Amino acid sequence: MLALEFACQTMSDSKLKKLAAAWHPKQVPGKPPTVAAMVARDESFHLALAAGTGMRCSPPI
Length: 61
Description:
By secondary structure, the chain is mainly α. The chain is built from three helices and no strands.
């Protein structure tokens, strides 16, 4: 099972909507974000998915 599929089955609708809202185009600033900013947002998204499904998150290696 894919992590996103698992999240859709286990997380509340409100938590999923909050995650989706963070990636809505309106949340992206007028000028393109830096690569580092996008990497940080992506990492935050995946950590939120893991936490929302009860998976344990370990610090990056």
